[in-house]
Amino acid sequence: MKPRAKRGLAVAAGLAALGGAVALMLNAFQSNLVFFFSPTQIAANEAPQGRNFRVGGLVEEGSIRREPGGLTINFVGTDLAKAIPVSYTGLLPDLFKEGKGVVAQGKLGADGIFRADQVLAKHDENYMPPEAADALKKAQSGAMSAGGTLKGGQQ
Predict the structure, then answer these.
(1) Which residues, 6+ apart, have CB-to-CB distance to 85 below 8 Å?
(2) How many separate domains does the chain show?
(3) Could you read off the pLDDT of 19-65 as tens digits, one per residue?
(4) How far is the C-alpha of 142 from the C-alpha of 19, rounded, in Å?
(5) Rg for the chain (alpha carbons), in Å?
(6) Which of 37, 49, 53, 155 gives a 20 to 30 Å CA spacing to 106?
(7) Which domain holds residue 40?
(8) For strand 65-66 and strand 72-78, is the pairing parallel, antiparallel, or unpaired?
(9) Confidence band (pLDDT; 50, 70, 90) for 105?
(10) Nearest residue to 83 (alpha-carbon basis) of 22, 154, 17
(11) Are residues 60 and 135 in the same domain?
């Protein structure tokens, strides 16, 4: 084999290895990518079915229900325009309260209940995740421009 052919073969093998590494990296990135959706977007069927994503907003007042004898907690997350029921089994953060900001990560069930694997609460009085704050602002401006009054997370 001529040196030129050997060099060409080495370059082709190197490019193939590099392409394989990039493909593996992109596959790992895509499987770990988690998108954020508001309850309004979920109600509009913009959220993926069967994939993990995050939903954020406020914990609706009077919506927290603890199942007896277990760690399962059901609550309603709202962006003040729409609401979504959330079910979570596990320990909640200390700052999790009604009327406060929350971000839950999990999957939307066929029954319309969001089954969370993880629940995150804000860390102080002034902080809310940027995605949740933007979703709340958009929902409030959309609901107010429609002329509706908001009570309990519904129009």
Answers:
(1) 74, 75, 76, 112, 113, 114
(2) 2
(3) 999 988 888 777 667 788 889 999 898 888 888 899 988 999 999 99
(4) 46
(5) 22
(6) 155
(7) 35-145
(8) antiparallel
(9) very high
(10) 154
(11) yes
